[in-house]
């Protein structure tokens, strides 16, 4: 494990420890999780909504968790922020706010809930904590990392600054707080071009995703310098040749891709955008057949709301996103774990990098 990830679980302040989340909010009793006939009846309308993407054999296991989570959220005054890659039983059945990284950061900034449960990966929970330093932010599994976030450390950014003196550094939101603290401004896949151009500099470093940097470079006159080792292990696996094969197999197919894919893949696609950008594209364009070149749960989640669209699914699973499930979300709410804490010395400059981005975007 890299030192950047270890920083993400550093205690808030070793000198002035505050009681942990369980001590502050108390631990609740674990609810009954039986699939009774009464529960089956009560949950029928919800199952009707997700039945095309949740097999009937799985529902009796999910339904009691969904009911328990939704009850506990109310009792605790908690909200669940869910990334677009969450599985449909999380995305459609327990999430209060859903979206891409930028939308989740904005929701976190606006939230007046005492407790935020991040159904997503660790850097997302950390961003929520940066924007809500006095609230309790929980992630159901703190090992839910990200290959991009783990590809770069704060020292790597300091080395880059020495190599490129005076060149501003933009960090993709998929990084640890320690890395954000070393950078000038944050960006997400939905605003990277705008953030890069906002700096009014002829050259900009964009870390850590080398493919996002290359894709932004193709859309702006600013020279975007990449950090070579950074890549998303999910999106780097798609190839342009694979896209061509699918087009041959499915005449009329529309292909939309995430900007963490290679520039060759983006060139072979009809549209590229953030996870929410891709969802909006399907809703706005109503293609007869579409292929979302991204994580697997996206197609399931979007299919629920677009029953007339046929989804071709050559997806790749993100093993980190898939660490979050109904069971550990319920554990979070019952036991108040796992709490996200950030060293205040790191949190202040990291927050500034995120807030600069939010100010830019409104
Ligand atoms: P979005 O900001 O587009 O949701 O991307 C986050 C991510 O991790 C994609 O792999
Ligand atoms: Fe990180 Fe890639 Fe997973 Fe997104 S899909 S969380 S970038 S590893």
What this model shows, in words?
It is a single chain. The protein folds into 3 domains: 143 residues, Rossmann fold (3-Layer(aba) Sandwich), CATH 3.40.50; 97 residues, NadA-like (Rossmann fold, 3-Layer(aba) Sandwich); 78 residues, 3-Layer(aba) Sandwich (Rossmann fold). Helices cover 44% and strands 13% of the residues. The protein is built from 17 helices and 12 strands. The N terminus is likely disordered. The site of iron/sulfur cluster has 14 residues, from loops. 1,3-dihydroxyacetonephosphate binds next to loops.
Main sheet summary: 4 strands, parallel
* Ends apart, CA distance between termini: 36 Å
CATH topology of the largest domain: Rossmann fold
Task: Return residue spans where pLDDT drops below 50 for at least 5 consecutive residues.
Answer: 1-14
Assigned CATH architecture of the largest domain? 3-Layer(aba) Sandwich
Regarding quaternary structure, how should these chains be classified?
single chain
Count of beta strands: 12
Question: What's the tally of helices?
Answer: 17
Number of domains: 3
Report mean pLDDT, rounded to a whole number. 94
Proportion of residues in helical segments:
40-55%
CATH class group of the largest domain: Alpha Beta
Kindly name the structural category: alpha/beta
Shape: flat
Ligand catalogue: 1,3-dihydroxyacetonephosphate, iron/sulfur cluster
Question: What is the succession of H and E elements?
Answer: HHHHEHEHEHEHEHEHEHEHEHEHEHEHH
CATH superfamily of the largest domain: NadA-like
């Amino acid at each position: 494990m890299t030192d950047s990830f270890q920083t993400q679980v550093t205690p808030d302040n070793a000198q002035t420890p505050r009681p942990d989340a369980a001590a502050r909010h108390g631990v609740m009793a674990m609810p009954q999780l039986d699939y009774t006939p009464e529960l089956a009846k009560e949950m029928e309308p919800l199952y009707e909504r997700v039945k095309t993407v949740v097999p009937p054999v799985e529902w009796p296991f999910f339904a009691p968790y969904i009911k328990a989570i939704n009850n506990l959220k109310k009792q605790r005054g908690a909200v669940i922020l869910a990334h677009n890659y969450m599985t449909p039983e999380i995305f459609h059945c327990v999430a209060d706010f859903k979206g891409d990284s930028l939308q989740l950061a904005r929701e976190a900034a606006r939230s007046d809930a005492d407790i935020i449960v991040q159904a997503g990966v660790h850097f997302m929970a950390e961003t929520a904590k940066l924007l809500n330093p006095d609230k309790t932010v929980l992630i159901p599994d703190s090992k839910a990392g990200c290959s991009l976030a783990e590809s770069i450390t704060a020292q790597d950014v300091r080395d880059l600054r020495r190599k490129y003196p005076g060149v501003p550094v933009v960090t993709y939101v998929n990084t640890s707080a320690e890395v954000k603290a070393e950078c000038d401004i944050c960006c997400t896949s939905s605003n990277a071009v705008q953030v890069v151009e906002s700096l009014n500099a002829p050259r900009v470093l964009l870390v850590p995703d080398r493919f996002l940097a290359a894709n932004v470079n193709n859309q702006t006159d600013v020279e975007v310098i990449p950090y070579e080792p950074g890549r998303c292990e999910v999106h780097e696996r798609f190839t342009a040749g694979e896209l061509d094969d699918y087009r041959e197999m499915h005449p009329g197919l529309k292909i939309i891709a995430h900007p963490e894919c290679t520039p060759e893949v983006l060139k072979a696609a009809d549209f590229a955008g953030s996870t929410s950008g891709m969802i909006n594209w399907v809703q706005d364009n109503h293609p007869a057949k579409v292929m979302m070149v991204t994580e697997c749960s996206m197609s399931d989640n979007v299919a629920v709301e677009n029953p007339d669209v046929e989804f071709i699914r050559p997806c790749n699973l993100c093993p980190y996103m898939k660490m979050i499930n109904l069971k550990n979300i319920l554990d979070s709410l019952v036991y108040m774990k796992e709490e996200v804490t950030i060293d205040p010395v790191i949190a202040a400059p990291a927050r500034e990098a995120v807030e600069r981005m939010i100010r830019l975007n409104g």
